[in-house]
């Protein structure tokens, strides 16, 4: 039997942000804790939120302790601020880091302990209270964090997560208008991140017919619009399709799970502070170059979603074409295609492998087993820019 989980309510489309007023009135809140990126605050991105709150006369605390790829220290800081402010509602607006921190602030405000106490790999405590209600509003089209129950934190050498149903948003608002001013590199990295979510969910051992439908739709929307969104960011249709594609991919991977690309991307972020989106992007072709033979039945549908020609080609040729298509797409949107481009040395591959092997939660969903030798080979190929099987 399959199941599917999502936030209580999701609003998508240009102008969706206006629904926030209805939400605030529905919840009858008096004090709101807004967590956002300091740059977004300085650019006035959150001003429309503040205007809504002015109209209904609520007290607002705006906190900007958001840093990319947040370490545990950042998580604990926002938790303490939320506990101190004692709000009725937490609103996270920004990229994945802001949304993840908002989840933690809302939940741990109603629980004891620190962030590290609840980590997947090393934590020893269990969440007992749901905490505060939360509204999550993404300003990028990529992470899907607004519809997942995962919060990611950077450790010294890798990353770890807190995952629990209590972290799931009560309301998610996806308004593409909030992405219109994203610069090309952020658009590219977040967009390939969303594509990776869709692809990995589709080939996950935990995929279902429902998640497959969402994944394929997401791939089609993202692959068909990401180049335009990156290089002509004012194209509102492309921005809307990217926002919707990211949302669909988020719903899909939250239910089916991601796998090897994310598992191997975590050490890149932890050790070398490469953004999550770019970590996924640089590994996507090389992981699938290694595993396509275990999911050949699905590679043909991925090819169709990516608008790659399949007539007259064998299943093997189609799968190989998809892998090369991933690499071409990453280059087309201006992202690095090897980990060497991030000043990673060949001598770093052993420590990357050592940390990648630890991501058992993610590796377990791969259609092909990724053992230590496989992981080392993938990192080596990503360093050399080599597609061995494609």
UniProtKB/TrEMBL annotation:
GO terms for molecular function: alcohol dehydrogenase (NAD+) activity; metal ion binding. Residues 7-176 form the Alcohol dehydrogenase iron-type/glycerol dehydrogenase GldA domain. Transmembrane segments: none annotated. It comes from the Bacteria. Belongs to the iron-containing alcohol dehydrogenase family. InterPro entries: ADH_Fe/GldA (IPR001670), ADH_Fe_C (IPR056798), ADH_Fe_CS (IPR018211), Alcohol_dehydrogenase_Fe (IPR039697). It comes from Virgibacillus salinus. This is Alcohol dehydrogenase, class IV. Keywords: NAD, Oxidoreductase. Residues 187-383 form the Fe-containing alcohol dehydrogenase-like C-terminal domain. Coiled coil: none annotated.
